[in-house]
Amino acid sequence: MAKQSAFILTTAIFLLVIVPGVSLAQDGTILTSLEDQIKSAAKSWETTISNAAQSLFWILAGIEFGIAAVWLAVQAAALEAWVSELVRRIMFVGLFAFILTNGPQFAQAVVDSLFQIGAGGGSASPANVFNSGINVASIMSKNVQFGLLADNGLAIASVIAMVVVVICFSLVAAIFVAVMVEMYVGLLAGIIMLGLGGLSHTKDFAIRYLVYAFSVGMKLLGLVMIARIGSQILIGLANSAKPDDEFIATLTIAGISVVIFMVAMYVPQILQGVVQGASVSNGMEVIRHGTQTSTFAAGTAIGSAQMAAGAKVAYETARNDGSSRGQAAAQAAMAPFAALSSAAADKLSGAPHAGNASALGLANHKLRQSLPNKPTGGSSPKSS
Hints:
Layout: H1 2-17, H2 22-25, H3 29-43, H4 46-75, H5 79-119, H6 126-140, H7 152-189, H8 191-194, H9 203-240, H10 246-276, H11 284-320, H12 325-349, H13 359-370
């Protein structure tokens, strides 16, 4: 009974992940709906925040004129000094009043322009990023064929790579949503900073609002470019893979998808920090993140290959024990994920044997131990 339940559960997972279809490709519209709802909710606060900013601005402007008048009175200034100071203060207040009135529209125009530059004249959204991952997984699903005459190792590697691609692009889409939320909420809540432009001592806060708008635009520009270029590269690799190189191409796609996720997580933040004047340690921060990204991607590709080999052995063992093709495929697919789940539990619980091993290395060790015919590769978990 337990085997039948596991087989049914695995079959359901296969149908959700492997089978391509139009309805699956449309799931990204949920992100578009979420983005629209956040935009509408943020827009409803615009009037309230704008009124508060205007009230703050004119209060500070009155204080500005009062301070100037007291200072001139203490100095017993002549009429010419009073007139020149009055003209200077009027020009100052008028300039920042103009920024207060038109600053939000100008900031939004800057962000939209940089966003369109990153999109290359096309369309870009979290839904498009998510659907790109689904499209790559759909192309790779053609390699998922189990049977005596089929390449079961390639099929299992394709399933693992598909899961990695979908997860990575889902995370990139989540980063995209987070940046869009930051743009809507940040530009809206930052309007109150424009109200601080009424006083010469606090005018820098109003200027920072415009700098922030440009930095958010640069962050979106970098993220959109990374997402579009990455999706085009992966789709090209998936379509151009030769029959003799499909296994390597599958692992390459999985590794590159991890690279895209890591780059999308760090590079836009670095661009934003550069615009805002934050230090990036003379480029060493970029080098450090790039090294971490390449190491993690290489470990993911190697670990995925080892888990695919172990899953292939699990399939052959199940077939030798008399299981049907479907049951053997289910057991082969569940074995790596069961090992990975157990490894993750050991890492979270702080098990002594899991201290110096990566999650993938520990999962491969557990997978080898669970198989009667263990694939070669050592007897202790190693970092992948």
